[in-house]
Write a structure and sequence with these properties.
- Helices cover about 40% and strands about 15% of the residues.
- The protein has nine helices and five strands, in the order H-H-H-H-H-H-H-E-E-H-E-H-E-E.
- Helix 6 packs antiparallel against helix 7.
- By secondary structure, the chain is an alpha+beta fold.
Length: about 230
C-alpha cells in the first residue's frame, strides 16, 4: 500500500488552532500577545474564537500584560469561555515569564546603588495588590547571592520576623542584607513601624556582622531607599 502524508493547509485549520501553526511556521516572536494567550486557553466559546476571546481579555486589562499579571484566577474565570483550568494556565504562564526575568543573569548582578536593587526587584513587586517582605542576600563583593520571601499580608501590611531573616542569612553565608517590601497603596513614605523595624534589624545585624545595607520600599511608580535618605 502506498504511504503518503497529506498536509492540511492553515486555512482548513480551526480558527483557534491557527496560532499554533503560525508559531510552528514562523516562531514565537511573530505571534501577538492575544495569539500566545489563545494557545494557552486552546479554545474560545460559542461566539468567539480563542484569539477573539484573548483579545477581549487583553482589552479589559488595557492591553497590558502587567495588569493581566495581577488578575486572580477567580477574576479570569468570569470571562465567558474561561474556566478555572484555563485561568490557571494563564496565571502560571505569566508567572513563569516573570520568574524568567527575575532569574536572568542573577549571579552577575553587583549592587552598587539602590537603583540596581530597584531594577532587580521591581518585577517581583510590580504585579502585587498585597504587601510582601523580601530580603536580598549579598556576597562580600556585593554580588547577589539569593533572594527570599519572608512574609506576605494584605493591603495594609505584613510582618517580618527578625529571627527568620537572620536565620536565612546565616544559613546562606551572606555578608550583607538588603530589605525590601512594597506599599500597594502607592505611598512611598515609610511608616513608623517600617522605621522601627529597620532600626532594630540594622542594630541586630551589626552585632552578627550581617550588615543591613539598605531597605527599599516599592510602589508601582517608584521606590524609597533608606540608604539614599541617609537613614542607614
Amino acid at each position: 500500500m502506498a504511504h503518503y502524508e497529506q498536509k492540511i493547509g492553515i486555512k482548513l485549520w480551526a480558527e483557534e488552532d491557527r496560532p499554533r501553526e503560525k508559531l510552528l511556521l514562523n516562531g514565537r516572536r511573530h505571534l501577538t500577545d492575544a495569539e500566545l494567550i489563545a494557545i494557552l486557553i486552546g479554545s474560545g466559546n460559542k461566539n468567539e474564537t480563542a484569539v477573539d476571546l484573548s483579545k477581549r481579555i487583553l482589552s479589559f486589562y488595557e492591553n497590558k500584560l502587567t495588569k493581566l499579571g495581577k488578575a486572580s484566577i477567580s477574576e479570569l474565570s468570569k470571562f465567558k469561555g474561561i474556566g478555572e483550568a484555563k485561568a490557571v494556565s494563564i496565571v502560571a504562564a505569566l508567572e513563569l515569564g516573570l520568574r524568567r526575568n527575575e532569574n536572568a543573569n542573577e549571579e552577575t548582578i553587583q549592587v552598587t546603588a539602590s537603583s540596581d536593587v530597584y531594577k532587580y526587584m521591581h518585577p517581583t513587586f510590580a504585579h502585587l495588590n498585597h504587601e510582601e517582605f523580601w530580603i536580598l542576600l549579598l556576597k562580600r563583593s556585593n554580588k547577589i547571592l539569593s533572594k527570599h520571601l519572608i512574609s506576605k499580608g494584605g493591603q495594609a501590611g505584613t510582618v517580618a520576623d527578625p529571627k527568620i531573616i537572620f536565620k536565612i542569612a546565616l544559613e546562606n553565608n551572606a555578608a550583607n542584607i538588603i530589605l525590601a517590601h512594597n506599599h500597594p497603596s502607592g505611598n512611598l513614605r515609610p511608616s513608623e513601624s517600617d522605621n522601627k523595624l529597620t532600626r532594630n534589624l540594622a542594630a541586630s545585624g551589626t552585632m552578627l556582622n550581617l550588615y543591613v545595607v539598605d531597605h527599599l520600599i516599592f510602589t508601582d511608580s517608584g521606590y524609597y531607599s533608606y540608604k539614599d535618605e541617609g537613614l542607614l
